[in-house]
Amino acid sequence: MKALQAEAKRTGIAKTQWDNWIAIDRLDLNSLTEQAVVIGAPISKVQKVLEKPMKPGRDCLSVVRYKNGAIEEVTEKSIGLLDVEPEADPEPVSEVVTPTKNPKAVAAVTVAAPTQGCPAPDFAAIDHRANRVLRAFLSPEQLRDFNSEQSFLQRGADTGHLYMITSRNAPQKLQHQSYRSLYDMTAGHALCVHDWTIPAAEEMLTLALFVATPGKEAYVRAIPDNGQEI
Q1: SS3 content of the chain, % helix, strand, coil (to 5)
Q2: pTM of this prediction?
Q3: Which end of the chain, N or C, is surrounded by fewer C-beta atoms within 10 Å?
Q4: At 84, is the pLDDT very low, low, confident or very high (cuts 50, 70, 90)?
Q5: How far apart are CA 139 and CA 145, in angstroms?
C-alpha cells in the first residue's frame, strides 16, 4: 500500500497523478479498521508497482487468455492486454488454439516463478480465494478433474510431455507422486518445484502456466532435485 500511495501521487514528464490519488494517500495504514478505495489507474500500471514489493527478487510471468482459449505471454509491447475487463463469470477454456488476428482477451494474470528444492510441503490450512483465477484458465476437462480430484493434466509447450498438477491440499493423492505438486507422467517422475508462500490454487496455476508457455517449460525442468537430472 505504501508503494501504491507513492506511485499514485508521483508526477513527471510523462506521468500524471492517478485520478483518485488523494483518497489513496489518505488511507490510514496503521489502522486495523477495514478501508477500501477505487484506484483510478490501469491494471498494467498497478501490477508493475506491486510486483517488486510483493514478489521481491522473483522472476514473474504475465499471461493473457483469449476468448478462443489461446494463452500468450505478455511482453512490453502487449502490456496493455493486462487491462482487459474481466467477465463476470469467465467460461472455462474449451480448447487451446492460436489467437486470431484481433483476438479478445478475457483473463490476465501475473505469477512469480516457482521456487526450487525440498522438503515436502506442510499441509496446513490454506486460503482458497485463488480458485476463481485458476478456474478462468482451465479447460472443461481440467475443471472437471480439479473439482473431483484436486488435480488436472497439462501438456508441456516445449516437450509435449503430459504433467499431472496436484493441489497440496490433497496429501493422500500426492503420496502417490512423491509428495510433489508437479509430476511428469510421460517420464514417470516428480519434479521438485513449488511455491508455498501463495495459496494452493495459485501455485497450481503458476505451474500450469509455466509448463504451458513456450520457452518457460525449460525453466521448470532445469530445476535440480537432489542432483537428479530431469
Answers
A1: 30, 20, 50
A2: 0.56
A3: N
A4: low
A5: 10
Tracing cell 514489493 back to the chain, one arrives at 53
Q: Per the domain annotation, does 53 fall within a domain?
A: no
Mean pLDDT of the chain: 78
Residue 102, exposed/middle/buried by CB under 10 A (0-12, 13-18, 19+)?
Answer: exposed
Residue 229 lies in a domain: no
User: Tell me, what's the pLDDT at 168?
Assistant: 83
Q: Tell me whether residue 216 is exposed, middle or buried, using C-beta atoms within 10 angstroms of its C-beta: 0 to 12, 13 to 18, 19 or more.
A: buried
54, part of any domain: no
Give the list of residues 6+ apart from residue 153 with CB closer than 8 angstroms, or none. Answer: 141, 142, 145, 162, 163, 164, 165, 185
Alpha carbon separation from 32 to 2, 6, 28, 40, 223 (Å, rounded): 16, 21, 9, 24, 41
Residues 96, 14: one domain? Answer: no
User: Which grid coordinates belong to 110?
Assistant: 501475473
State whether 130 and 185 are in the same domain: yes
What is the Cα–Cα distance from 132 to 134, expressed in whole angstroms? Answer: 5
